[in-house]
Amino acid sequence: MALITDDRTRFPVAPSSLLETRYEPGDAGTLETLFAIGNGHLGVRGAHWAADDAELPGTFINGFHETWDIKHAENAYGFARTGQRILYVPDATNFTVNIDGEALSLAGSTVLDYGRTLDFGSGLYLSRITWLCRSGATVTTTERRAVGCNSRGCLGITLEISADREVYADVTSSIINRQDRAVEDHSDHDPRRSGRHAGRVLHPVRLDGDAGSFRLAWQTAESGQQVGLAVDHWVSTGTAPFGTVVDQDESSVRYVLALTPGVTFRMEKTVSYAVDGRDVTDLAETAEAGIRNVNAIFTEAATHYRNYWATTDITVKGQPGVQQAIRWNLFQLSQATARAGVAGIPAKGVSGSGYEGHYFWDQEVYLLPYLTYTNPSAARQVLESRHGMLPLARKRAAELNVDGALFPWRTINGLEASAYYAAGTAQFHIASAIAFATHRYMWASDDPSFQPDAGAELLIETARMWASLGFFGKDGQFHIHGVTGPDEYTAVVNDNLYTNVMARFNLLAAAALDDPRITDEERDVWTQAATRMHLPYDEDLQVYAQDNDFMTLEPWDWTTPRSKYPLLLNYHPLVIYRHQVLKQADTVLAMFLQWQDFTAEDKRRAFDFYDPITTGDSTLSACVQGIMAAEVGYGQAALEHFTHALFIDLDNTHGNTVDGVHIASTGGVWSSLVSGFAGYRDQGALPHFDPRLPAGWEGLSFQLNIQGRLLLVQLEQGAISFTVASGAPLEVSVRGRKHLVTDRTLRVGLEPVADLGMPSPFSTGLPAHAVAVEAMAA
Predict the structure, then answer these.
(1) In a 3-state reduction of DSSP, which class is residue 725?
(2) Of 121, 227, 268, 519, which one has the greatest count of Cβ atoms within 10 A?
(3) Sequence spans of domains, the chain
(4) In 3D, which of 486, 568, 480, 422 has the Cα closest to residue 79?
């Protein structure tokens, strides 16, 4: 059952907010994710203060983590040594409210009216509940939350209480150290979930509090990281705190008062976090110095989103439910990236602990397109975070007997944290992802200072890695063996097509640099390796093969029941590896990213072959499948793949939204609209568009920050229009024809593109791959 789309009375459609109109038990963990607020640095899950069934409430700071020694059952040289896991920081979102002796709770009290809102326009979380108390009083509670923007470590919360008759209110506001509290560890059942540390992780070093003001600090047991916390309370009634408790696990302030009709009790709770200081006392003082009042924090958030939507909004005419979901996805992209600073972007942003808070290739392939074209300075900061990891990447390369730099598959601190090398270290393609994002940024930005230093060095060091990892075979071609591509259901293979195609790009991009660090011999080797790169091809099927042996594998049994998916949770890896089945788009992704290297017929045949055998067990897949379905002419399939990507979290279709937003998929939604339906392709001679607007959509519009211009793109049935909103004129290509765009709107007519009628994989309710296989066989 789809959570959001199957119950529009509980979650009504609204263009710029997520609304919940009634409380129902059983969805708490998922809704904690959907209603989370964050800014890329600080994230607060959307747990309700009155919920008895909160599943994974808490607060996160990007990069704040603990480490431990990985214990391998059978060790080997070069295995990852240090595990890293994002930590819950002490959480300040907690309240208890007692009215005339009754503890208000969603499960145990009578609720007359319930509603909460996540407002995309202001970044504000709002919940309002009207209670019928056992004493007969009707009481309304209203909570608001927002995180700062300029003050990125700040959180503002207000709690208001009013009653229709005189009541006695007993209100406690708490800061809870959740990291050291016992929680069931599900990570042994699902590797996508975060594990838990045994024993105490955060050791208190400063615990000061008085009259509702707290100055607290902790240090992690192993990584030595520190977090400081300043919390201040203000109440409207002038009531003095009834008591203040300070403890390493829970610090609180309590207010007891008589509340009369017509008077609203208002509590303002301002919170400031600071991390990474060496002196805990100074760090707590740093947090104190950064604290802001609630109104300032709310204003910062509102200002940020007003500016954000002015340049980043994507509008779809005539599809209100789709529009709401698009804006939720775009809102999550801002929450995951806006104030990350020179840091990576965790696979769940700061909305949850899934994937241990690690940085993967997701950020370069799925998030950097969005950032490059909407927030170039943030894109540069992500690339600078990779550049900062170069010293460790060089050491890792030497450990694996290759030159240059080898970046870790998953990491927080720059060290490899993937204990399963077959689906981790073997994914050398992360090097080309970083090079690709680097090259895209240099192509799309008006930033001449980036290439000579960080940009060139990232391209050069990754090219050196490829040149030494691969070899020239007896056939005269360049081969890369022993790697895993994006499809983790096919591991440690020879000549993975995606890896080779992206390595070829990486080598050519580096060879084209005019940089004194590149020797003539290196440049020649890189050029030869790229020119002679082996790309597996099946002559009988006339399809590019995913790797040298993929076409020889046994087909998967597509009568496998839906309950056995995702396969990674139900089958040993060796069972999956010996079958012709994909976790996610692999060869198809290569043809999207390196669009100029393949013919239209190459792409269509590849899509026809691989789409039916792609399980979609990865949330990274649907967006890519939709983009390429649009390009090759399968309009209905494109729309359905896009819709699946759009609602992955909103409908909890993969069953693990509880662990945080799938941020890469939200980036894929942006790319689906811009690169799929508008047909945008980059890094060629010109920005290129080949639109494929879905039938039934009246229009699609967005803006791109490209080469120093702000380009407005408006798509309608039968035409595409361009306007340079700021900057110099820009030349673009539309289906191969050049056009000069100025500040006067240019409208280009489009011939309709026939829908080739790829079978609809979602209409029967069966697994997409099974439906497509049956249809193709028929």
Answers:
(1) strand
(2) 227
(3) 17-302, 360-535
(4) 422
- For 68-77, the pLDDT digits (tens) are 999 998 999 9
Beta bridge partner(s), residue 217: 206, 228
Fold of 17-302: Beta-galactosidase; Chain A, domain 5 (2.70.98)
- Give 218-239 pLDDT, tens digit per residue: 999 999 999 999 999 999 988 8
Contact 432, 496 (CB under 8 A): no
Question: 616 — alpha (psi -120 to 50), left (phi > 0) or beta?
Answer: left
Looking at the structure, give the CATH architecture of the domain made up of residues 360-535: Alpha/alpha barrel (1.50)
Buried b (16+ CB within 10 A) or exposed e, 295-312: ebbbbbbbebbeebbebb
Peptide bond into 516 cis (omega under 30): no
User: For 295-311, what is each residue's pLDDT tens digit?
Assistant: 999 999 999 999 999 99
Residue 332's alpha-carbon distances to 32, 39, 118, in angstroms, are: 13, 9, 11
Write down the H helix ranges in 257-389: 280-289, 294-312, 320-337, 362, 368-374, 376-388
Active site residues: 488
- Of 749, 748, 754, 775, the closest CA to residue 764 belongs to 775
Domains 17-302 and 360-535 share a fold: no
589 backbone dihedrals φ, ψ, rounded to 5°: -65, -40
Where helices occur in 538-674 by DSSP H, the ranges are: 573-577, 587-593, 600-610, 621-632, 635-646, 663-671
How is the beta sheet containing 746-749 ordered, strand by strand?
A: 315-317, 699-706, 709-716, 719-726, 746-749
